[in-house]
Amino acid sequence: MEYFLQQLINGITLGAIYxxxxxxxxxxxxxxxMINFAHGEVYMLGAFxxxxxxxxxxxxxxxxxxxxxxxxxxxxxxxxxLWGWAIERVAYRPLRGAPKLAPLISAIGMSIVLQNFxxxxxxxxxxxxxPVIGGSVELLRGxxxxxxxxxxQIVIVLLTLVLMAxxxxxxxxxxxxxxxxxxxxxxxxxxxxxxxxxxVISATFVMGAVLASVAGLMVTLYYGVIDFYIGFLAGIKAFxxxxxxGIGSLPGAMLGGLLLGLIESLWSGYxxxxxxxxxxxxxxxxxxxxxxxxxxxxxxVEKI
Amino acid sequence: MAGAVLAGALREALAAAVVAAGxxxxxxGFRLVDSSQGLSLGTRLDWVAWAALAVGLxxxxxxxxxxxxxxxxxxxxxxxAVPAQADRLRPWAGWALAGLAVTLPFLPFADxxxxxxxxxxxxxxxxxxxxxxxxxxxGLLDLGxxxxxxxxxxxxxxxxxxxxxSFWICLPLAGLFAAGFGVALGFPVLRLRGDYLxxxxxxxxxxxxxxxxxxxxxTGGPNGISAIPRPTLFGLRFAANAPEGxxxxxxxxxxxxxxxxxxxxxxxVILGLALLTNLFTLRIRRLPVGRAWExxxxxxxxxxxxxLNPTNIKLSAFxxxxxxxxxxxxxxxxxxxxxxxxxxTFIESAVILxxxxxxxxxxxxxxxxxxxxxxxxxxxxRDLQQYRMLAFGGAMVLIMLWKPSxxxxxxxxxIRLGDxx
Amino acid sequence: xxxxxxxxxxxxxxxxGGLIAVNDLSFQAGRNSITAVIGPNxxxxxxxFNCITGFYRPQVGRMALHHPSGPVLLERLDDHRIAARGRVxxxxxxxxxxxxxxxxxxxxxxxxxxxxxxxGFSLAGLLGLPVYRRAExxxxxxxxxxxxxxxxxxxxxxEAGSLPYGSQRRLEIxxxxxxxxxxLCLDEPAAGLNPRESAELNRxxxxxxxxxxIGLLLIEHDMSVVMGISDRVVVLDHGAxxxxxxxDEVRRDPAVIRAYLGEPxxxxxxxx
Lengths: 304, 421, 272
Fold this sequence. Notes:
Structural class of chain B: mainly alpha
Number of strands of chain B: 2
Shape of chain B: globular
Number of domains of chain B: 2
Structural class of chain C: alpha/beta
Radius of gyration of chain B: 25 Å
Oligomer: heterotrimer
Strand content of chain B: under 5%
Largest interface: A-B, 71 and 61 residues
Helix content of chain C: 25-40%
């Protein structure tokens, strides 16, 4: 029982991270119908930028972890957002009218470029970081297992909730959010009505990148190691989460992320760790087979 | 006028340089250094300055060239059929390339290295032609093609090391197994469209790789399978010595033994396989099955209304594409003598897909050109191993920006009323 | 009608969740005749078509197509079987051609099933056997026949997508006819055509009715086509049939006038 609870807690934490990355996928797919293959790499860059910013601040400013983390958070949100903007501008926008496969190939190419950029500039070995946020709370003391909730886990889940609330508010209440929803439903019409569709799309990419960068920071703190390859796997899983929750739906992405995190955590806890990635892919296949619109998505009706 | 253009270009260049500086600052400007004392930071800020400068300059030149050149319409829809003359040139170009390929090992400048690299290019050409059936002709976006490649390779490896069967017997079997996997993959994805299909097939590719990596008993896990036997020419071995009852190639033909013989033999094997794939594809495009693939790509609902069964059409495309990948995989295994899951990652699927898309979907010669570009060229820069993949990814992006429909994307009809046979 | 009907639609109901698109609809379409289905937008005409051609499965009802060998129940067949087994062909409201294939290829694809059978699933073709070559030649002949009928022979080798709009509509009809149907369903064949093209379309459809001796079922808003060539008209409104009869009968029916035709003198009034 205790073991199960622990896996549950771990799963929720993992799920929060997946959810943040998944939002980027779902928003971009919802608005321009394209899978941003490079999004996983954006998350990876976010992790690196966060780590570098954190180190920089501790080396320069002082020993305060709070200052370091705040710097890391702001720096990664800003700079990764910039990366998200630049990638869209360079690799996707020129291809908006092109045959469907062109942006996909461009995205795959971009993903390869970013991965190798990180590998070349930072080296191929993993980068470890000693724990920054320590401490944990004991929840349940069982016979041979103690369920504990670490402060870091609390921070991750809280931060995720805050960001979710903020972005949901942005989508629902601000002019940008309205423009986004309009563009998502009918791009041509939105542009005819005077919405600057380019600006809206760029904003979407930036928002996705910002959320992914926060996920990157969380992962750096949570696992303590990062390398240039984390983007690929996390990317596929986060996309799985987005599809599971219903592509195009923000709460869906979060829900999908949560479910995926739980499934992965429970699977590694009870079955096998080696095949946990297979579990994620299998879920993807099953969802797309039996409920392609996902849990919270809207069915697409094709006019005959 | 010129002043305004220059000023505008300068402004854009400055903006681009600033953005580039921001992008380059974290990862380029700093370096994470891992030492016994923990993690620390090294600086390379001058690189950031150089990067910003380069980007700014590039943007400046780009903007200038755009403003000065008369506007040309971007994605112009295809205006009509490929004129008959271009059509007649194509087969000649094809024959010329084939002729070059056949005579390559005997040309004066051809050395072992060149033939070896050409062999590698041919593997990818064959894979590209195989994937072309699925993606180019049938329009099914398969991102997990490497799985069939792997099935072919491991089938041959296991059959030959386990049962001792020869390459030529295992080859069709490997194709059969791979085709079986193709059908198995095809069934679940029948109702999926576009990007979803892509992701699921990618997932399948990864599942296959993870299974190969972890199923130690069958596949040897990360260690793979080694000592895979090489192919023989009607029983003649390409080695210095042969065991009892067998003869070597050199011995049979009265030639002094040379390692080059095997290299050239392998080259001709893959050339033969590739040409077989090409011949098959050219033929099948003029047959109901091939036309059905292309019709399905164009409009599935119209196909249904004409009585075509999309299930059969999709499964046949997957199966046949997979079969050729299986053949290529067997060849890969026999050429290397050793295989491991590392050779069958997603990157391979991406490379093959890039070759098909870059070449212009459905174009046979395009695939050859793209393979030469994406696989052949980087091989020449092997010393700069690190930058190879970076250049590869960059090439994918750049070529898409330049020619989104691929290098040779015009389609010519497979049957003409004009020249009825 | 003196002759036995070709198509019998009985009590067909199609629901999408809470929305009833087609409500207990029954009517008949005869062989060697043109039956028009008209009604305001949203009346359920295309939904009815999609039921008859197998793209939707109605929850209730029976749709029987009377083959020479006996009735075939269309509600039991999937979309691709409807064309093959049911011998129903259709065109679409938004033209669905194989745009990047040539005009001729579009017509050859339509004869896929015949060619597959003749070539042993393409095997005979792969081996270059004469039985396939002969079958392909026959297919080209049939294609040529329809190209001539629709005036598209000059464009045979051009990309279907490059044809002018009116020609594309005719190509879709030619392609449908290449499947040798007993019933041809046309979804707004005159949409977007100018008066001269509409008149040509009328001639083509009458030609098909008289020469091929099949039944035609068409959805139309263009009254010159409906009144000009239809033998019978069925009027739908909100998914239900409100009138059925000859064009004259329907034109005078008060229920129809109420629904949308407007006053008899006011023939210019086109429903939008």
